[in-house]
């Protein structure tokens, strides 16, 4: 386990290198592994969205209560640290008991992501 003062950059590169991931469509910063995908059946502000377990290279905006299709949720917009493009939002809290599974997860807009399957061609 890395100490709080150690450089974890190499660890991040090792985890993400060669693995299928989603990157920012504006600056190509890696945002999440495809393994973190929970569901493709969500709606964002600008169309289809993905519910994701975790993300990197993102920063959160301020918390706010927002009326979404499934009720009121406390969310914060999610921005790419590379280009500051808004990618979606983070679910802090769900008012409805049936929506609690979203808490601590990300809704990322499909149109804001590039899917990299990390395929290699054999020589």
Any overview of this molecule?
This protein has 123 residues and is mainly β. It has a single domain, classed as Beta Complex (Metal Binding Protein, Guanine Nucleotide Exchange Factor, Chain A), CATH 2.170.150. The protein is 7% helix and 49% strand. The protein contains 1 helix and 9 strands, in the order H-E-E-E-E-E-E-E-E-E. It has one helix at 9-16, and strands at 21-24, 30-33, 37-44, 47-52, 58-68, 71-80, 86-94, 106-109, 113-116. The strands form 2 sheets. The chain has a 6-stranded antiparallel β-sheet, with no helix packed on it. It has a 3-stranded antiparallel β-sheet with strand order 2-1-9, with no helix packed on it. The radius of gyration is 15 Å and the shape is globular. The N and C termini lie far apart (37 Å). InterPro entries: Yippee, Yippee/Mis18/Cereblon, Yippee_fam. It holds the Pfam family Yippee-Mis18.
**Total individual domains:** 1
Corresponding CATH superfamily: Peptide methionine sulfoxide reductase
Q: Helix fraction?
A: under 10%
Task: Please summarize the sheet with the most strands.
Answer: 6 strands, antiparallel
Instruction: Please name the CATH topology.
Output: Metal Binding Protein, Guanine Nucleotide Exchange Factor, Chain A
Number of strand elements: 9
The sequence of SSEs as H and E is: HEEEEEEEEE
Spatially, the strands of the biggest sheet line up as: 3-4-8-7-6-5
Strand content: over 45%
Can you tell me the CATH architecture? Beta Complex
Mean pLDDT: 86
State the helix count.
1
User: What would you call the shape?
Assistant: globular
The CATH first-level class comes to Mainly Beta
Rg computed from alpha carbons, rounded to a whole number of angstroms: 15 Å
Give the end-to-end Cα distance, rounded to a whole number of Å: 37 Å
| SS class | mainly beta
Low-confidence stretches: 1-6
């Amino acid at each position: 386990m890395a100490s709080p003062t150690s450089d974890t950059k190499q660890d991040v590169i090792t985890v993400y290198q060669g693995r299928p991931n989603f990157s920012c469509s504006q600056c190509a910063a890696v945002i999440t592994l495809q393994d973190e995908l929970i569901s493709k059946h969500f709606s964002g502000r600008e169309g289809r969205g993905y519910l994701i377990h975790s993300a990197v290279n993102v920063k959160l905006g301020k918390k706010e209560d927002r009326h979404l299709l499934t009720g009121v949720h406390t969310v914060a917009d999610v921005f790419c640290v590379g280009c500051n493009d808004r990618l979606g939002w983070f679910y802090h809290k769900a008012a409805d008991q049936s929506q609690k599974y979203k808490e601590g997860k990300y809704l990322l807009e499909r149109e804001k992501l590039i899917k990299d399957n990390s395929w290699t061609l054999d020589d």
